[in-house]
Each structure stands twice: as C-alpha cells, then as structure tokens.
Amino acid sequence: MIEAHDLGKRYGSKTAVDSISFTVQPGRVTGFLGPNGAGKSTTMRMIVGLDTPSSGRVSVNGRQYADHRAPLREVGALLDAKAVHTKRSAYNHLRAMAATHGIPNSRVKEVIELTGLGPVARKRVGGFSLGMGQRLGIACALLGDPHTVILDEPVNGLDPEGVQWVRHLAKRLAAEGRTVFLSSHLMSEMALTADHLVVIGRGRIIADAPVHEIIAGEGQVRARVRADRPQDLLHALAGDGVSSKLLEPELLEITGVDSRRIAEIALRERVLVYELTPLQASLEDAYMQLTQSEVEYHSHDLPVRPAGAGIGEEN
Amino acid sequence: MTTSTATRHSAGSGVNFGRILRSEWIKVTTVPSTIVLLVTTFAVMVGLAALFAWALATGQEQLDAAPEGQNFGPPPGQGIPDFSETALTIASSGLIFGQLLIASLAVVLIASEWATGMIRSTMVAVPRRIPALLAKNVVIAALAFVIGALAAVLSYVVGQPILAGQELDFSLTTDGVPASIINTGVYLALIAVIAMGIGTLLRNTAGGVVTAVALFFVVPTIVVTLLSNLADWIPDAARFLPTNAGEQLVAITIAEDALTQLEGGLVMAAWALVLLVVSLAVTKRRDI
C-alpha cells in the first residue's frame, strides 16, 4: 500500500507536484495517468526516496521507503530503464543489486528467465534496445519479490508482445495480492491494464476512481434515443442534470440519465422508442476532457496558408 | 500474512554493510575499464621504479667515471642525499603517475554512476545512501592500498639488480624501507578517497579527473613553483597540499623544518576525511 499525504515537490519556482494525496491499494492494478510533465515520475521518485518532498510525506507499507530494513523486498521500482551502468552486463547488474540484500543468485537467474532476458543477460547493457532495457528494469524491480511494485512507463519501447507481457504481469502481481502502481501517458494502455486510476495533471490529482467510473465520464451517462414523439419524451425527462440535443427530427442525445430510466419514462408516457443506445465514452475521451486544461505542452494546428504564399517568398 | 510474506521478512533478509560492500565489490570487478586501470596503475608504478633505478645507476656510473675536479654529482657532506640514499626511496618512486591513475579510477567509479544513471539503482537499493557511498570508498581505498603496497614491493625487487651494478642495492629491512612500502599503499588509498570525494561532489567524470589532476599534480608542481617567489607564505602553505604532505609520508629521510612522516600522513588523511564527510553530507541531501 502506498499512501501520499499532501505530497509536494518544487524545483525553484516551478511546482512539479502540488500537495497531492492518494492511496494505492493492494490487490489491484492502479494506473497513474497524466500528460508528459504532469508530475508522475517526480511522484514515483519521491515514493522511493530519490527526491525529497518539499512538503507532505509518502509511505510504503506503513513506513517511509528509506526506513525499511530491506527496501528491495518491500518495493520494486522501475523508474528509468537507463539506471544501469552501460559497460556492465545485465547479469552482473542484477547480481550487484541482489548482493545488497543478500538475495541469492538463484533469484537473479529466476528474474532473468521471467523477463525473457536469458539470451542477452551476459551482454553489456549499453547495447540493449529500449525494450530490453525495460525488461532489465522490470527484472530489477522483481528481484526482491516485493509486495509493492512501481513501474514508470513500463511499456515504453516494448514490442506488442512485450506490451502484452507487461499487462499480464501487472495483473498477475495484483491478483497475488500485491500493490501495483504503474504510470503511463497512454490512456488506451491503462484502459486495458488498470482497475483503478489516479489521474494527474500539472502536479494536481484530477481524478482518483475506478476505471469504469472515469470512463463513465465524471458521472455523465449518455444515450442516443430514436422515438416517435421526442418532444413529449424530453418534457417528461426534464429534471436536474439532464440535458439533451435534438440531432435529427426523431433522434435525441440525452445526457445525465441512464438508459433504463429513459426506457421506464418512455413506457410510462407511452412514447414509442425504436432505438436506445447507451453511449460508452472511451477512457480516451474522459482523459482528454479531464486533462484538457492541465496539459503542460499544447500542440496547435499549423496555420493554413493560401496556395502560392510560400514561406520566405517575397512578392 | 501469507507464508511467502513471512519468509520475505525473515531475519537476515535486510541490507547490511557487509552486503553493500559485496555489492560494491561486484560493481568494481564487473566493469572492464576498472580492471584495466588497476592493472595499468600497477604496471606503470613498477615500470617507473625500474626507470628510476636505471637513472640512479647511470648517474652513479658517470659520477664514478668523471675525473677529479669535474664532479657534477651532488657534492658530498652538504645535506643533499647522495645516490645511495635516494635509491632507498625506490619503493614509492612510481607514485607520481600511479596516483594520477588511481585518482582517475576513483573519480570514474563514482562519476560514471551519475553519467549512466546507475546511481539511481544504487540509491534505491540502499536508500540511506551513506552506507553505499562509504562502501564504495572502502572498496577503492582497499584496492588502492593493495595495488600501492604490492607495486612498492615489486618496485624494490625489480630495482635491486639494476642498482646492484653500481653497488646501490640495499636490503629490504633497511631502516625506513618497510614503512615506505606500507605507506605507499596508504598514500594511494588516501588519494583514492580524496579523488572519490571530488568525483562525488562534481558528479562528472571529466571535471572530476581534471580537478583531481590539478590538485595532485598541477598545483603542487607548476603553480607553486611559479608563485613561490611572490610571497613567503606560498611555499609554506604548499606543504599542506595533499601530495606534498604525502611525499613526507613515504619519505625515508626527513629534511629539517619539513613535515614529519606522521604529520604528512595526518595532513593527507585530513584532506581525505574532510572530502569524504562533505561528499557524504551532500549526497544524503541531494535529489538523485
């Protein structure tokens, strides 16, 4: 279990993390989602004590990371696939890490097998592809058989097979009762892997809820309805938080009330409904909506120039 | 709590200094460049000692061959050591370059962790940080001591047949010689700790090596020589530079008003201690 209370980090005048509080529960995969520069990595670095919080505190399994007697057996973290000496082999890197905790070589070989590093384990890490580097980082995280696993952007640079492998691994670790906390800026990946989401933007938590709730769009349910007498149906549905749009003469989009309720009211009002489609917002939509004002770097469409008005051409 | 968690937290599963030392030892021995540097240091030190012996023997030969009145060797009886006295320092004669190689190795060991990002893995495994850095210092100091002392012994051995040609050879038990062999190891160990302190503070290999070479070589030889006529205090203060103090540590005969062996050793150790403590304190506080 990871518990953050008013956790904050400032670099000079820039606030990277703005007193956030959240809890990561064991037994499920918690996704840490946010645009680039939102503060995900900084938060994770504070969890394992690489960065000192400017304010607040964060504990893992009830204690600050550095206070654990055997930190690698409590928490396994992949923060940066490149946190390895490039001239050392993967096997020796893992051996050096394991030695600090008296973890036997048999476990080193186990994680090498588990992460599929076998064929390259004796090669220098400097020549590794990004994907191999990620696998080594994950191997290192699993070395101490930890109860809490923290993975920062674990699928970065992995091939499709690797992505699927990480997905299964995260789910399996959670099913074993471990705390699994993984970050990503890819909502599609989170939709498939995570059970619970902590969404962060510009250093602030903007959502902390189960994935299905976030997909439901901050409580906004929508449905598309085709009915004979749309005006009568609308009139009967009118109430708090219900809004609607008439898209076509007999086609409505109704927001704020679920499909079953719509059907019940239509039945009561004796309005013939010949199509009723609950609209599932994608996690992507929900995410874009949530983080719209929170992204650090916006991209803009290129201005459209009339033909002939080429750049740098005078006359 | 399941059985597996119980095993996980069983006694003896935690971090301790012995384990961190072992980890640092694995790190040092599994990067090819460190092994190459250690072997090079050893070879260079012994090679320099052989050259030193050869130069002394040649000098003695020319001195003996020179006709009376054209004596260009050190005039006898004026407190300047003659060749036979100088020969006694052969054990430590390789230090002048050996120290630069060991210093580079010490800087590289710590600065490369920052350059490659390895430092984050190190500090995640040992989040208290100080034991990790301390272990790294112990490992490099121990290696430097062993390399220094072994090179000193071999320097003596290699030098004897060369010196024997001019009857400059001497016994290993000559007064001061065993101490100078041990102290050559101590000297290199202290150089390693000072250099690692510099590397830890600068976190940059090139900057660290340049700074260490400046402190150990450029400042005491070139800068002090150039400036020593400007003010009396400059040569006076220069005695307390780490390598100048270290020269006294390995010296066999101590000139008047120079630091004694013990004083020289203590001055050098003070440099090492201050840099070690500062680098530990800074690393403890710094974001990594």
Q: Helical amount among residues of chain A, as a percent range?
A: 25-40%
Oligomer: heterodimer
Major sheet characteristics of chain A:
6 strands, mixed
Overall geometric form of chain B: globular
Shape of chain A: elongated
Euclidean distance between termini CA atoms of chain B: 34 Å
Distance between the termini of chain A: 67 Å
Sheet with most strands: strand arrangement of chain A: 5-6-7-3-8-9
How would a textbook summarize the main sheet of chain B?
A: none
Which structural category fits the helices and strands of chain A? alpha/beta
Give an account of the 3D structure.
The complex is a heterodimer of chains A (315) and B (288). By secondary structure, chain A is an alpha/beta fold. Chain A is elongated. Chain A has helices at 40-47, 71-74, 90-99, 105-114, 130-142, 160-175, 187-193, 211-215, 230-237, 259-269, 283-291; strands at residues 2-11, 14-24, 29-33, 55-60, 75-78, 148-152, 179-184, 196-201, 204-210, 222-227, 243-248, 251-255, 273-279. Chain B has one domain (24-285). Chain B has 12 helices and no strands.
